[in-house]
């Protein structure tokens, strides 16, 4: 464990490289949605292929992120972080030169694997490197700069798509990685969790990723009526059962099932599944609606979505403080209901919609709902387990949020009746979008009811999260294990 001070030159370099590394992965989770219509047009891809452009990344990221943190503990957090950065850059290059949708989506899956190595490592390096007196401030800066990256993402994506082209949404990661990796090697001290023995839960990670991939494939292809879809669904559910059995019986599992013996932990993760499924489906379809139906450019559509992230950056810390005083149940009930109201206001967004009269009110209400619920949600997850398991709890919650988003992107077009060519037919897409927004609002309402009925105030003295500013609407922030300095384990 190092005692680097934040005010020192080395401290500033550590913060710079960890923010830059995690920012690459965060940018790719926010900019790609804006580029989807242009990707489909250029590569001749149908809606299912565009769904995979989002989900191929999320499948490997959600399935491997816990394993990525464990690899850092064993082999060195800096080493695994640098490998993740370079892996992510190589996969981004493959995305940028992909000649067709199949190659693009295969490269996106590789990107997600790289993200699983670098995302937990970025926060773990901060926790392991900085002096205890500076650690909380360093984590806050890491989170705040990450939020700024999330805010810039849709705008940057739109600018790149309308300017040099959608391929630069991916290619921009290459020079960033070539800057990040050498700085990390030169200025970031190596650290590990001190565990040289034991086994990695590779089987559990593989089964989890396979289950997500097969179920996602079945949901995206369900409209085809192919026997392969049914086989994939059965195989995916079988892999999911296998994952549970392996985690139950294996010594040192990736996700110890006994953590769910905490009723509060299980309930809050249930709320997480509801709200992040709605968020994932909303942001996937909203970027398409603004371009396909309203007729805006990629830049205009990306810029239009900024208010939600801006509100998160400005107000989430105050929301967390309020939840500390009044308890999490009210924020976790009111927040999803506000989000549902914002989603329903998107029903007003159709051809020739006005930004000020139609789009902005919906996004402001949605953003206020996110502000209300996201910080208390993360705090409740961490407060529901022992301090020694805070990193594990955050990692499970983070993986649950990502899995919920990818399943929503896979299932929502199917449930809303979107055909393979829907995004090329504005009238058909508009009607299906309205049905999808009703479904998102319904899932958010279920989350609100679940929170109202089951969430309770944590016991006095529970640990509060260091990461109190939330800028990304895609996933909750990772929280590091205070004992080992490891994030999302």
From TrEMBL:
The keyword Kinase does not apply. GO terms for cellular component: plasma membrane. One of its GO terms (molecular function) is transmembrane transporter activity. Residues 14-459 form the Major facilitator superfamily (MFS) profile domain. GO terms for biological process: response to antibiotic. Its main location: membrane. The chain crosses the membrane at residues 12-36, 48-68, 80-103, 109-126, 138-160, 166-188, 200-220, 226-246, 267-288, 294-317, 329-347, 359-387, 399-416, 436-455. Keywords: Antibiotic resistance, Cell membrane, Membrane, Transmembrane, Transmembrane helix, Transport. This is Transmembrane efflux protein. It comes from Streptomyces gancidicus BKS 13-15.
């Amino acid at each position: 464990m190092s005692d680097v001070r934040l005010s020192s030159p080395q401290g500033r370099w550590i913060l710079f490289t960890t923010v830059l590394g995690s920012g690459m992965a965060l940018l790719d989770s926010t900019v790609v949605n804006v580029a989807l219509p242009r990707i489909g047009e250029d590569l001749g891809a149908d809606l299912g292929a565009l769904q995979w452009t989002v989900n191929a990344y999320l499948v490997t990221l959600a399935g491997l992120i816990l394993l990525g943190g464990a690899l850092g503990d064993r082999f060195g957090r800096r080493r695994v972080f640098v490998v993740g950065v370079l892996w992510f850059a190589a996969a981004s290059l493959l995305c940028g030169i992909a000649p067709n949708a199949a190659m693009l989506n295969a490269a996106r899956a590789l990107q997600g694997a790289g993200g699983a190595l670098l995302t937990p490592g970025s926060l773990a390096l901060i926790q392991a490197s900085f002096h205890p007196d500076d650690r909380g401030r360093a984590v806050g800066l890491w989170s705040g700069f990450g939020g700024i990256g999330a805010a810039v993402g849709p705008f940057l994506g739109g600018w790149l798509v309308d300017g040099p082209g959608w391929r630069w949404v991916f290619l921009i990661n290459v020079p960033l990685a070539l800057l990040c990796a050498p700085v990390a090697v030169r200025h970031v001290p190596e650290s590990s969790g001190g565990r040289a023995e034991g086994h990695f839960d590779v089987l559990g990670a593989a089964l989890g990723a396979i289950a997500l991939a097969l179920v996602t494939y079945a949901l995206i292809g369900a409209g085809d009526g192919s026997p392969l879809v049914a086989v994939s669904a059965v195989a995916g559910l079988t892999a999911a059962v296998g994952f549970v059995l392996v985690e139950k019986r294996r010594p040192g599992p990736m996700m110890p099932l006994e953590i769910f013996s905490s009723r509060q932990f299980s309930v809050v993760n249930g709320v997480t599944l509801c709200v992040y499924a709605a968020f994932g489906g909303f942001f996937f379809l909203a970027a398409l609606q603004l371009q396909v139906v309203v007729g805006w450019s990629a830049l205009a559509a990306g810029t239009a979505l900024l208010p939600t992230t801006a509100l998160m950056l400005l107000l989430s810390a105050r929301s967390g403080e309020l939840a500390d005083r009044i308890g999490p149940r009210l924020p976790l009930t009111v927040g999803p209901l506000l989000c549902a109201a914002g989603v329903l206001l998107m029903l007003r967004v159709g051809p020739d919609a006005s930004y000020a009269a139609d789009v902005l009110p919906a996004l402001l209400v949605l953003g206020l709902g996110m502000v209300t619920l996201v910080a208390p949600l993360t705090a409740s997850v961490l407060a529901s387990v022992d301090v020694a398991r805070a990193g594990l709890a955050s990692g499970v919650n983070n993986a649950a949020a990502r899995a919920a988003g990818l399943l929503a992107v896979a299932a929502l077009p199917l449930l809303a009746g979107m055909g393979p060519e829907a995004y090329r037919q504005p009238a058909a897409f508009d009607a299906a979008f309205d049905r999808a927004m009703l479904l998102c609002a319904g899932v958010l309402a279920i989350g609100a009811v679940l929170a109202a009925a089951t969430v309770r105030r944590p016991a006095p003295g529970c640990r509060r999260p260091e990461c109190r500013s939330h800028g990304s609407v895609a996933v909750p922030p990772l929280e590091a294990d205070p004992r080992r300095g490891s994030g999302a384990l």
